[in-house]
Amino acid sequence: GIFLVSRYEEWVKDRAPYFMSFAAGVLLTVSFLHILPRSLQMSEKAPVLLLSGLIGFYLINRLINLHSINQKNDNRGGSRYRSLIPIVGIGFHSFIDGVVYSITFKVSLFTGWLTALGTILHEFPEGIITFVLLKKGGFNRKKSIIYAFLAAGLTTPLGVLVSYPFLRQIEEPFLGSLLALSAGVLIY
Q: From the CB of residue 120, how many other CB atoms can be counted at a distance below 10 Å?
């Protein structure tokens, strides 16, 4: 997504809502038709953790937006600083995507591949959005590409690398709980 928007910026901007809608549809479909039912089979706590993932990411989003709004009202902030707030949120979100990859591949190869497909399709517009936010914030093209790659691209594999070693020893009910939490995050 970052590469495409850096080469065909206007074309991608015009079609960004279509990319986002498609990615959201894929994530919702994978979550509701496979990840959630699988988590319900594995853990009795799945409904509560699904809701926790959904509400947790909602609250994180609200906090980032609140901080961003406060910076807009603060003359010391500046446009560049304000554009970095959502980028930090995207970086955190992408890191969590990496953790979700680890969890779903630990459950089964099929669950992992379904989630990977949905998340990769979701990462495409996320890279576009990150690049556009940085450009709007006053960063030049080269810095926008680099920072967008760091926030939206590099943090996902980092999430996999950090989380995977911890997932090796967990039992199925706990894994089902993590899967439900992941479903809540993906649905949000």
A: 14
